[in-house]
Design a protein that fits this description.
This protein is mostly helical. The protein contains 14 helices and no strands. Helix content is about 65%, strand content about 0%.
């Protein structure tokens, strides 16, 4: 909403600033593009060159002028966005501290945020610890899984664990194997966290990284496509009179 409203006044800024927090800080702290200065922009962006680019575009912008009332409304929206970003970071830090105490092994494998989401989807750490790796792999993809059961097509390879950088940062042909690996390690980590309460995070993390490197090396190239037979159109038999 901030980009939409402020874009009427300074549309070129969206092409120069990709980071939402930087964009909203400019709007909240400076407001109208008439208030832009090198010092003010440099304080927000941390780069004199980037600040100069923004200032040059502001001087030649094709955007419409803003009234003081409109400017204050847009700045309020930007301030609210910054408040939500701050709240999100505080919540993430709290979850990281909690996960490091309650589930250190799961936190080391999946990450504290993704680990907390998996616990929530499973219904608790105990239920997650009792799930097989195949179920953990597709947690969060229940609709796609039931559609596969119904139609027999498009089996999901991963659910919410797609958010892990090992999965979404890999090529498409590697994601299924990496998702299976990650799900298996998550299952082991959750069982250790719930049943034995031992901190074996470094050992599990090392095993995950080694196996991940093997998959990346072994399947570096996409699999070759098998030549299929070209199917022609079937002719319908003529009906006998």
């Amino acid at each position: 909403r901030c980009r939409e409203w402020y874009g009427l006044h300074f549309p070129e800024l969206a092409d120069l600033i990709d980071e939402p927090e930087e964009y909203m800080r400019i709007v909240a702290e400076l407001g109208s593009r008439k208030n832009y200065t090198i010092e003010g922009l440099k304080k927000i962006l941390g780069s004199a060159r980037k600040a100069r680019d923004v200032l040059d575009k502001a001087e030649t912008s094709i955007g419409a002028e803003m009234s003081p009332e409109d400017e204050e409304r847009v700045r309020n929206v930007a301030r609210e966005g910054l408040r939500l970003i701050k709240l999100k970071r505080e919540q993430e830090n709290y979850i990281k501290e909690l996960m490091s105490i309650e589930a250190p092994n799961l936190s080391a494998i999946a990450g504290p945020i993704l680990g907390a989401k998996l616990i929530s989807l499973a219904g608790g750490l105990e239920k997650l610890a009792r799930l097989p790796a195949s179920t953990i792999q597709v947690l969060g993809a229940e609709k796609a899984l039931f559609r596969f059961f119904r139609t027999g097509r498009g089996a999901p390879k991963h659910g919410i664990i797609f958010q892990h950088p090992y999965v979404h940062g890999s090529p498409r042909w590697q994601r299924g194997k990496i998702a299976r690996l990650l799900a298996a390690k998550i299952a082991i980590a959750a069982r250790i966290d719930y049943f034995s309460r031992e901190d074996r995070s470094s050992e599990l993390r090392k095993a995950l990284e080694e196996r991940y490197a093997e998959i990346k090396q072994k399947y570096a190239q996409p699999p070759a496509r098998k030549p299929g037979k070209r199917r022609g159109k079937r002719r319908r038999p003529r009906k006998r009179k």
